[in-house]
Amino acid sequence: MSIGPRRIGKYELHTLLGRGGMAEVWKAFDSNLQRYVAIKILHANLQNNFDFIKRFEREARAVASLHHPNIVHVHDFQISRLVEEGNPTGYMVMEYVEGITLAEFIHNTSYEGRFPPPDEIIHLFTSISRAIDYAHQRGIIHRDIKPANILLDKRNPSKYQIGEPILTDFGIFKLLGTSTGTLSGSWMGTPAYISPEQAQGYPGNERSDIYSLGIILYEICTGVRPFQDDNILAIVWHHIHTAPTPPSLVNPYIPKALSEVILRSLAKDPAARFQSASAMADALIAAFADSTSPANSVSTNAASEKPYINLNHLNPLPEVTSSASPQPAIEHSSPVPPVVLSTPKFTVLQTPSAHNSRDSERRTPSTPIITNIPQNSVVESPSASHRLRKSKLPLLLAFLCIVLISSSLGGFYFLHKSSNPVPPTNQIVGNAIFVSSGQSSVSSSQGLYDQLQMDLHDIQSPASGKSYYAWLLGADSSELCPPLNIIPSIFMGKLTVDRGNVHFSFKGDQQHDDLLGLVSGLLITEENTSITPDKPSADKSTWRYSAALPQGVSDQVTNSSSFLENLRCLLYDQPALISQGIHGGLETPFFGDIQQVMNAARSASYAFTNGDTRSMHHQVMSILEYIDGLTTFKEEVPGESPPQPNDKRAQIGLISLQQSFGDFSDYGDRISNFLGSMVLDPGVTPNMQKLVNQAKEALSNVQRWLQMVHTYALQFVHIPENQLLQPSTDDTLNAILTYAQYADNGHIDSSAGISQSGASQLDQNIQGLATFEIKQ
User: What is the mean pLDDT of residues 25-46?
Assistant: First the structure.
């Protein structure tokens, strides 16, 4: 659209909020619902083929299914025609968030040397991390996380000056990145925040989002990005090959623990980064809490009386000036002897060319190299450095072209890795995790944990004429949670070693059977390349790597069960549930019903805004049914019809409503019982014990918060019908929504300086237990 339409569908377009190469965003007015919305309109030349329309509808539907307080809500999506132009146009209608972007916030604070206090940083990253993990659990990866895609909501009062962060543009990268068919589409994510694997043409995964989040954390804590240049190819090259300057060298008041969190997030190898965004946020909280040594500048939060690190003693970065003539920015990809620029606090090493920031008029260092200079150091003159780099420019340009061409073919190489190192015996060389395809059925556990992803590192290549073959080993019989079938082994495939690394995905069988109900171990053999074996060799000398889930029984407890048996009850099937027609173990219905509670709480709040008392009542009744279970619901609100009479999962309550837990009639107590039993297995590792402890803590939080939801829901039941639109009712519904959100996503207790986990973290912890630790 050259000038911009005035109307699209039922929406009046008022103000152009932003424009990019593939789309533009408008503030619009919904004349039917009398509210402002934000509309992202994809440029018309993208809708000229039917494949794009199908892809748009598929991706938009997936994004619209996300319901999280820190993800912008998609109200609608359409393929329509602009009234003025008549061109077919795809657009998404989203909630309009009043507030600035995180990019503007960083520009006005960190870029000027005024860094946010730790509680603001923790609030920002914990909120966004939970939103990211929520999307990842549903198979949606952002792939273009950057400050401009994080809105700071000022609509609701908050004790945090920064506001409530709202993440936008889920699915846009994947949608547009596959629509152009161009080379640039393979790494269309913003160059300043793109991960190394995306920069090389790899589509990116959950760890790619964590890398982008790490760039933002670096930027907030230092006032600069780790890699900057006027040339996009140079930035891409740095992401692939250049180690970021430790942030504590840019801002000397950053404690070591915080610097380590940032650098781990920015690891070139995706497997070396945090396993989840929430794990990164937890490490961030711990870094601020633990960094109280006299070497650091320490302040005290008056509300909590707990010390925390103050990042604000750093002076604003000076303007970069140089007498040398500006040189092509691409030259910064080569190691260059720098020119020294001093500040009162630290020394900034700057290559001899001037740079204009794309985000502000203020000049900032390009790929800063910050260090303390020894007195006997020699700094080469700008002219000498220019001669050195100029001779390498043609070679560098040729190399970058090769990198980009390789990336378009899907090449994914980490050149910093040494090839084929040999690990010590019995050392963990990687892991394999169970993942779900989503091809699920309500009548079975199919589609749950039916696939496996394996990552190995520091692997020696097989001998000449030999190959590695991966196998899943059959599960033993069990009376507690019996396996689907007793099988000897499952052949997964031949493994390829690339520079000491193995990344392998096993898609399971055509029936999408839950692998946890089939297997208990994993084996990698080294056998002849010429003949693919039909079963693992019985010759143990061919066994190279293996893993097993613990199947021991405690001698100290009568009738104890193994770790694997209890894990199956949580993630595969549990006989007591099967008899009621409920499949997928305990974790699936428990987590799903909590989300139903949160969605109903949100719908009840919307209904109050619209004056729909009937809908309010229906949603609160749904909440009570999910928390109570069918039997208790009928006793608690006699005369009310269950809103979900055919939902078998809702027949069992989420929590016990007695004074003390432990009757094992509800999902929560049953999960607690199996978590407690699995750690009695003598084969449980310290990491498994840690995950169980974290899961139990999260479960306790969820039970407590659901009790509060239940209390306020009963208060609503007793409100007279003629008072349902009073402000006090709104307060009750807001309390229900608040505690429901806590139960689903956890809560940050800023006064105590801790993050309290919810069902999302519980879900991650339990799934993390289904991990093979592969050893040599």
Answer: 81
Compute CA distances 201 → 83, 177, 188, 384, 720, whole Å: 38, 11, 10, 36, 61
Q: What is the C-alpha to C-alpha distance for residues 446 and 450, in angstroms, rounded to an integer?
A: 7
Residue-level pLDDT at 40:
86
Task: Output 332 or 506, whichever has higher pLDDT.
Answer: 506
In this structure, how many other beta carbons lie within 10 angstroms of the beta carbon of residue 377? 10
CA distance 553 to 540: 26
User: Torsions phi, psi of 456, nearest 5?
Assistant: -125, 150
Structure tokens at 524: 């990698």
Q: Do domains 7-95 and 102-309 have the same CATH topology?
A: no
DSSP string, 749-771: ETTTTEEE--HHHHHHHHHHHSE
Over the stretch 273-314, which tens digit does the pLDDT of each residue have? 998 999 999 999 999 887 543 333 333 333 333 333 456 543
Q: Alpha helices of 141-203 — where are they, by DSSP H?
A: 172-177, 196-199
Show the CA angle centred on residue 462, arms to residues 456 and 464, nearest 5°. Answer: 160
Q: For 102-309, CATH number?
A: 1.10.510.10
Q: Residue 263 — pLDDT band, cuts 50, 70, 90?
A: very high
How far is it, in rounded angstroms, from Cα 443 to Cα 436? 16
* Among candidate residues 409, 454, 447, 414, the one with its CA nearest the CA of residue 430: 454
Helix (H/G/I), strand (E/B), else coil: 322: coil
Q: Are 448 and 434 in contact (CB under 8 A)?
A: no
Say which of 144, 513, 666, 744 is annotated catalytic.
Answer: 144
Q: In what order do the strands lie in the sheet with 369-370?
A: 339-342, 347-350, 369-370
Which of 129, 428, 163, 132 shows the shortest CA–CA distance to 283?
129
Residue 391 clears pLDDT 50, i.e. is over it: no
Residues 373 and 343: beta-carbon distance below 8 Å: no
Laid out side by side, the sheet with 466-474 consists of 489-495, 466-474, 519-528, 543-548, 771-775, 428-435, 451-456, 502-506
* Three-state SS at 18: strand
CATH code assigned to 428-548? 2.60.40
Buried b / exposed e over 304-317, threshold 16 CB at 10 Å, is: eeebbbbbbebeeb
Residue at token pair 């991390």: 129
Nearest to 82 by CA among 91, 74, 73, 92: 91
Q: DSSP 3-state helix, strand, coil percentages of the chain (rounded to 5)? A: 40, 20, 45
Q: Is 599 exposed, middle or buried (0-12, 13-18, 19+ CB in 10 A)?
A: middle
Fold of 7-95: Phosphorylase Kinase; domain 1 (3.30.200)
Q: What is the pLDDT of residues 346-388, one digit of tens each?
A: 222 222 233 333 333 333 333 333 333 233 333 333 333 333 3
Sign of CA dihedral 646, 648, 649, 655: positive
CB 232 within 8 A of CB 251: no
Q: List the chain domain ranges.
A: 7-95, 102-309, 329-407, 428-548, 565-771
- Arithmetic mean of pLDDT over the chain: 74
- CA-closest candidate to residue 716, choices 739, 734, 741: 734
pLDDT the model gives residue 511: 84
Tokens of 302: 């008056």
Share of the chain above pLDDT 70, in %: 70
Q: Which of 683, 674, 476 is nearest to 575 (CA)?
A: 674
Helices (H), 663-685: 667-678
DSSP H helical ranges for 26-179: 50-64, 102-108, 118-137, 172-177
DSSP E strand boundaries for 389-465: 428-435, 451-456
Contact 347, 370 (CB under 8 A): yes
Q: Is 666 a known active-site residue? A: no
